[in-house]
Amino acid sequence: MIRDFTEDEARRALVLKWGTVDPDVLPAWVAEMDYALAPPVAEALQRAVTDGVTGYPPALVNAALGEAYAGFARRHYGQQVDPEQVLPTSDVTAGVRVALDVLSEPGPLVLPTPAYHPQFGLGHCTDREIWELPLDPDAGEVRLDLDRLDDLFSRGATTLLLTQPHNPLGHVHTRAELEGVRDVALRHGARVISDEIHAPLVLPGAEHVPYLSLDGTAEHAVAVLAASKAFNTPGLRCAQIVTSDPAARNRLLAEPMARNDSWSPLGEVAAIAAYEDGDAWLAALVARLDEQRTLLDELLAEHLPEARVRPLEATFLAWLDLRAYGHDDPATVALDKGRVQLEAGHRYQPGLDGHARLNIATSPERLTEIVVRLGRALG
Ligand SMILES: Cc1ncc(COP(=O)(O)O)c(C=O)c1O
Predict the structure, then answer these.
(1) Residue 379 and residue 376: Cα distance in Å, rounded?
(2) pTM for the whole structure
(3) What dihedral do alpha carbons 267, 281, 206, 88 form, nearest 10°?
């Protein structure tokens, strides 16, 4: 069911990931998958283009999108979502910015690090300081430091940006961890924005707990999410902000159009098709990624035995600790000597040397070639 792109197809389809690297480079960087679109999504888009669905999307609320996401959340997470509380926005990055601007008190934003690197730019765009909550790269398990979070809120931070599941660590925060976050946020009257774009990509062995499914979160939290990461449609521009609190929803709806986060009607078509008709394809994708993570472990053991990789509980993005090989920036060495494009770890945690992020959403053959090249370049 998962159809791998050939290199020619990938170069035509994924114009950022494949189109901006030299022809001899294997790209394993930006979070796009080397797989053809899910057939239900492709068919819905083809129908919409034939019908000329290229005008403005329906303003502010789209009942069909709300219903589609509510059904997906019920089936996949056992979560009850009120379809009326699902608001479209252009993409997850914009949705987080809008939620900060509209709903959060002025004041610093707490960002657990390493973090998806564009999140650092939120400080500039929303005129806030970013206060990092570092996750220890040497800790056996990823754990948010709740005492430090408590301290940051006491000193004036107003909002936590949670990335759940986490990119780049591939960690799925447990219910207990999230309840701890909730208790600290409630104690300080702080806000939580939960970026859950990777939630459909939780792999066997882990369970996604939507932050808003916890008791006591409705009044201080919103989730920002999309079908676009799991269904490879980020260029279509349609994410969703989910609220549980009618007051938050009304504040978002009252924003003037000049906020300029409008989404695309084709993005809506794709999201609805993915949420309503994508379950079988998504199950096949998760099975493929599960195989790819096992293959990655085997390949690393053979070709880069000193690498440490975080257990990949979700996403297709593996976080590699390559410090044992002695390169400050292994991504540059991988490109120069191995002709593999990784993401440099220091983009996700400034000052952190020796780490890189590797995208495994490709064919087993290509992943093998990537790791063989990395072994030669770094080892
Ligand atoms: C955690 C996280 N949030 C947001 C995004 C980007 O989403 P969008 O393209 O909808 O802005 C990504 C992309 O990989 C991501 O990993």
Answers:
(1) 6
(2) 0.97
(3) 10
214 & 338 share domain: no
- Percentage above 70 pLDDT, the chain: 99
348 with 264, same domain: the answer is no
Residues sharing a CB contact under 8 Å with residue 183, sequence separation 6 or more, in sequence order: none
Q: How far is the CA of 379 from the centre of ligand 1 (A)?
A: 31
3 pLDDT more than 80: yes
Q: Residue 374 belongs to what domain range?
A: 7-39+279-378
Chain centroid to Cα 29, Å, comes to 14
In ligand 1, the atom with minimum distance to the C-alpha of 234 is: 9
What is the tens place of the pLDDT at every residue in 281-322?
999 999 999 999 999 999 999 999 999 999 999 999 999 999
Using one digit for the tens of pLDDT, what is the confidence trace for 18-44?
999 999 999 999 999 999 999 999 999
Q: Which of 57, 78, 33, 12 is nearest to 228 (CA)?
A: 33
Final residue before a domain boundary, out of 276, 295, 328: 276
Nearest to 213 by CA among 244, 259, 258: 244
C-alpha to C-alpha distance for 155 and 134, rounded to whole angstroms: 17
CA 128 to chain centre: 22
Domain count, the chain: 2
| Mutate which of 29, 89, 93, 194 for ligand 1 pocket (most atoms within 8 A of beta carbon) | 93
Same domain, 195 and 342: no
Q: Is 45 inside any structural domain?
A: no
Atom of ligand 1 nearest to the CA of 163: 1
Residue 170, domain CATH:
3.40.640.10
Closest to 164 measured CA to CA, from 217, 201, 121: 201
Q: Is residue 2 part of a domain?
A: no
Domain boundary among the residues 276, 297, 329 is at 276
- Max CA-CA distance within the chain? 57
